[in-house]
Amino acid sequence: MEFTVTVDPEVIDVLGADQVSAFLNDAATKLKLKVAAKEALADINYFDELVNDPTWEKARQQAWEQEQHH
């Protein structure tokens, strides 16, 4: 997906095209970081659900008991 941003010419006159471009690039980078963080949080939530799943808990306990007997 692509977005087109219209910047008021007065803003460009006051700040300069380089500064406006740097600001927009910084904003795009921050958006990418927010998306990555949101995806990481979703992964963590999935693993939390998995860790707390009763079936997995039972399997971990059985594995632990088997390890104790060896």
Question: What does the model show?
Answer:
The chain is mainly alpha-helical. The chain has one domain. 83% of the residues lie in helices and 0% in strands. It is built from 3 helices and no strands. Helix 1 packs across helix 2. The chain is rod-shaped and about 75 Å long. The termini are far apart. The mean pLDDT is 89.
Number of strands: 0
Can you give the helix content as a percent range?
Answer: over 70%
Topology as a string of helices (H) and strands (E):
HHH
Mean pLDDT: 89
Q: Nutshell version of this structure?
A:
The protein is built from three helices and no strands. The protein has 70 residues and is an all-alpha fold. The N and C termini lie far apart (56 Å).
Spell out the key features of this protein.
3 helices, 70 residues, 0% strand, mainly alpha, rod-shaped, 83% helix
Secondary-structure topology with pairs:
Elements: H1 9-15, H2 17-51, H3 54-69
Helix pairs in contact: 1-2
